[in-house]
TrEMBL record:
Keyword tags: DNA-directed RNA polymerase, Sigma factor, Transcription, Transcription regulation
Listed name of the protein: DNA-directed RNA polymerase sigma-70 factor
PANTHER family membership: ECF RNA POLYMERASE SIGMA FACTOR SIGG (PTHR43133:SF65), RNA POLYMERASE ECF-TYPE SIGMA FACTO (PTHR43133)
Any single GO CC term annotated in Swiss-Prot or TrEMBL for this entry: DNA-directed RNA polymerase complex
C-alpha cells in the first residue's frame, strides 16, 4: 500500500461506502448482523487486494462486486429468512403457545441509520425506505440469490443492465431475463397481503395515529387500542412462530399471556423504513423499565395493520444504540 497516509486515505474512501453496502447486504441476506459481517468481510477483501484493482471500474462498483460474491457465498447454505406469517397460519388465541425457532429462521429488523444513506432526492429516499420494509424484504427472500442481486441492483439501486451483467460476469439478456422472473415472483407474493403505506415522511394524520398508539399501549387501554387497529391487523413476535390476526385475538393476548407488559414505556426508533418503538416493560426486580422488544408498525388507511415485536433484548437494543435500562420516570438510567 505504500505509506501510512495512503493507507489512511483508502480507509476513509472505503468507509464512505459502508452504509449503502450494509443496505445492499441486508436486502440480500435478511439479517442485520450477517449484513454487517458481510460488509466487514467486503472491506477487508478490498483493502487487501486494492493494488490489483487498478481503477478499471469505479471503486463503488468494485466494492459491490466483492459484496455480491460475499453474499452469494453466505447464501449457498440455502437458508431463507422469513416472518412468522410466511411459515404458519394465524393461531387462534385459545390455542396460543409460545414456541421459539432458531435465530437464523427470522427476518431481522435493522435501524434505518445503518442501511439508508442520506440522499437529497426525495424519490430516491422513498424507494430506499420502501425496499427495506418487512413485506418487501420477505418477498426478496423468496428469490434465488442471483435473481435477488439482479432485482436489488436494477430496481432499488438503479444500475443499468449492462453494469449488472458486468458485475455478475453474465450477459445483458441473462440479466433482463432474471429481472423479469424476479418481478413476477415479487408481484405474486406482494399481491397476497396489504402493504403499509408509509414510504415517505409521516404525514400529520400518521403522526397523530402513532401518538394515540403510544397513549393506548402505555396506558394498556385495550378499548383505545382496538379503535386504532384494522379489524384484520396482525401481530407477530419473533423468535416465536405464533402470530395473531384480528383485534380480539391481539388485545386478548395482551391481557393474558402478555399481561406483564401492562405499564410499559415506548421510545421511538426508525426501523426498516417504518415507524417503530423500543418497548421497555416494568422491571419488578430493579424498578424502572427493562428492554423487551423492538416494535415495527405498519400503517394503512389511518389504522395499524401490522405490529411486529422482535423480542431478544440482548441483540436488538445494543444494535439500535438504546439504553439498557430506564428509571422510574422512563428516562435512561445514568451510566446505562
Amino acid at each position: 500500500m505504500g505509506n501510512g497516509t495512503a493507507t489512511a486515505d483508502l480507509d476513509v474512501q472505503l468507509e464512505k461506502h459502508r452504509v449503502e453496502l450494509t443496505g445492499y447486504c441486508y436486502r440480500m441476506l435478511g439479517s442485520s448482523f450477517e449484513a454487517e459481517d458481510a460488509v466487514q468481510d467486503t472491506l477487508v477483501r478490498a483493502w487487501r487486494s486494492y493494488e490489483k484493482f487498478e481503477g478499471r471500474s469505479s471503486l463503488r462498483s468494485w466494492l459491490y462486486r466483492i459484496a455480491t460474491n460475499v453474499c452469494l457465498d453466505m447464501l449457498n447454505a440455502g437458508n431463507k429468512r422469513a416472518r412468522p406469517v410466511d411459515l404458519t397460519d394465524a393461531t387462534p388465541l385459545a390455542q396460543a403457545a409460545l414456541s421459539p425457532r432458531p435465530d437464523h429462521t427470522w427476518l431481522e429488523p435493522v435501524p434505518d441509520a445503518r442501511v439508508l444513506p442520506s440522499v437529497s432526492d426525495p424519490a430516491e429516499a422513498a424507494v430506499a425506505k420502501e425496499s427495506v420494509r418487512l413485506a418487501f424484504m420477505a418477498a426478496l427472500q423468496k428469490l434465488p440469490p442471483k435473481q435477488r442481486a439482479v432485482l436489488i441492483l436494477r430496481e432499488v439501486l438503479a444500475w443499468k443492465a449492462s453494469e449488472v451483467a458486468e458485475l455478475l460476469g453474465t450477459s445483458v439478456a441473462s440479466v433482463n431475463s432474471a429481472l423479469q422472473r424476479a418481478r413476477a415472483t415479487l408481484a405474486e407474493s406482494q399481491g397476497q397481503e396489504a402493504d403499509g403505506d408509509v414510504s415517505d415522511e409521516l404525514d400529520e394524520e400518521q403522526r397523530k395515529l402513532l401518538d394515540r398508539y403510544v397513549a393506548a399501549f402505555e396506558g394498556y387501554d385495550m378499548q383505545a387500542l382496538t379503535a386504532l387497529l384494522h379489524e384484520d391487523a396482525i401481530m407477530t413476535m419473533p423468535p416465536f412462530d405464533l402470530w395473531l390476526r384480528g383485534t380480539g385475538d391481539i388485545t386478548g393476548f395482551m391481557t393474558t399471556i402478555g399481561a406483564a407488559c401492562a405499564g410499559s414505556r415506548l421510545m421511538p426508533v426508525a426501523v426498516n423504513g417504518l415507524p417503530g418503538f423500543a418497548h421497555y416493560k416494568p422491571d419488578p426486580e430493579r424498578g424502572g423499565f427493562t428492554p423487551w422488544a423492538i416494535q415495527v408498525l405498519e400503517l394503512s388507511g389511518g389504522r395499524l395493520v401490522g405490529l411486529h415485536c422482535f423480542l431478544d433484548t440482548a441483540r436488538w437494543f445494543p444494535l439500535f444504540e438504546l439504553p439498557a435500562h430506564l428509571d422510574v420516570e422512563g428516562k435512561p438510567d445514568e451510566g446505562e
